Amino acid sequence: MNHIFKALNDETRRKIIEMLKAGPMNAGEIAEVFDISKPSISHHLDILKRADLITSEKKGQFIEYSLNTSIIEDLLSWILTLKKEK
User: Fold this and answer.
1) Which of 53, 55, 64, 84 could bond 24 through an S-S bridge, CB–CB 3.0 to 4.6 Å?
2) What are the pLDDT digits (tens) for 49-61?
3) What positions does the domain HTH arsR-type occupy (predicted)?
């Protein structure tokens, strides 16, 4: 779970997750939104993949990235267990 929190600790990675809510995107489409280098975007995508927050699939010459909703559901379930019962 530490990988998840590390990944979410960066504003760029949180923005990428927000973008992927709309559907799969390739690295070029993601990079167009940011004013940082493509290698930096690849680094952020790698961190998100290692945290299992996103998945990737080769589509022709591109790799499409998608939100991994199951890990997000697991994270939310865990957070809800922290709520103090009355």
Assistant:
1) 64
2) 999 999 999 999 9
3) 1-86
